[in-house]
Amino acid sequence: MVLGTVIAAAMIIAMQLPFAHERATSRITLDAITALPGSTPPLAWPSVGSAALIIPSMHVAQSWHDTVVPIASLAKLMTAYVVLKQLPLPEGSTGPCLTITSSDVATYDEMKLSGQSSVEVAVGESLCERDLLEGLLVHSANNFALLLATMVSGDVANFVTLMNDSAQRLGLTHTHYVEPSGYLDGSVSTALEQGELAALLMKSPLVRQIVLMANITLPVAGTVSSFTPFIGVDHVIGVKSGRTDAAGGCDVMAMTFQEGATTRVLYAVVLGQRGGDLLTPAGDAALALATSASENELDHYFAKGTSFATIGWGRNRVHAGLRVGEHVWWWAGEQRLPLTITMRRPTTTIRRGQLVGWLVVHGSSTRRFALVAQATVSPPSLWQRLR
């Protein structure tokens, strides 16, 4: 009898072994997102020259005909970067000042005769770092570029070395400068690298404040205006434009757009634009590209309770849906929205509202959504396992 009992017990245990490590299984169901928002307009790349689009918050960096070309006054972006690196300007500070000499006045007179963008100065006039940066970025003053270079390095040649060293350190491998203003054709770069530099420079609150100015007032020159097109129009906030015969019209345009309640910035860069005064077609091309870029932002609302998977044992399964709802923004150029779903494997009763997995959405930022069981499901009974 004892032997028979042991054999019977062994048979029961053996029959249960296939179920001894049974776990809940999950199935992924992406039915909830088979249809995302519809088509978006194509990007408005210019018909001539080259261009780039930078959207830092969405990790976008795209270019069109991205060749190495003269960049005119966009060179002043690096001039401002080096100056602020060497002479950081605390909020509310004017920075170090210099006194204008007769040589500085002669430089201005020469620039005026050759048609260069410059700001009038007078012997004995005091100009501080803040004044010079405003004149550099707002009125694109070539003589202010030389004054800043001298203030920082003692002479222009040493400053240009700092510009090129900074370009290499920042990974702008196609960028090279021969002087601080961009007037000479030897200062070259690509649209993409100028967009990357502008995005970096605009991290400075001081720079953002300056490039928003439509005009500035200086001691001798009085009020001078910005050459950068569309400042304050259609959410445009700068950054810098330039023109020479060799470079054509160039523009680095920053435009704000909304991502929910958050204001973001995109950068549209155009180089080598032709026609008219060069700046007008450059501004028009940059605005068209920036506007088309903002229209390529997509928004999808992941609703609370939306099911992305099922979980359970055999036919005894429940839906796993979102615990909360939230908007996700992403760039239409990425096309399909990248998703990752991971599920837990419960070993006992799955209760309604229990965390059973995660949905990770890689949009403009990575969002992690909790997936919870939509109902309670009990594990199969011993009898169900043995049937």
Which key phrases capture this entry?
single chain, alpha+beta, Peptidoglycan synthesis regulatory factor (PBP3), Domain 2, Beta-lactamase, 2 domains, six-stranded antiparallel β-sheet, five-stranded antiparallel β-sheet, about 30% helix, about 30% strand, disordered N terminus
Structural class: alpha+beta
**Strand count:** 19
Oligomerization status of the protein chains: single chain
Strand order of the main beta sheet, please? 1-14-15-19-18-17
Describe this structure in words.
The protein contains 10 helices and 19 strands. The chain is of the alpha+beta class and 387 residues long. It has 2 domains: 103 residues, Peptidoglycan synthesis regulatory factor (PBP3), Domain 2; 246 residues, Beta-lactamase. The strands form 6 sheets. A 6-stranded antiparallel β-sheet has the order 1-14-15-19-18-17, with no helix packed on it. Helix 2 packs parallel to helix 5. It starts with a helix and ends with a helix.
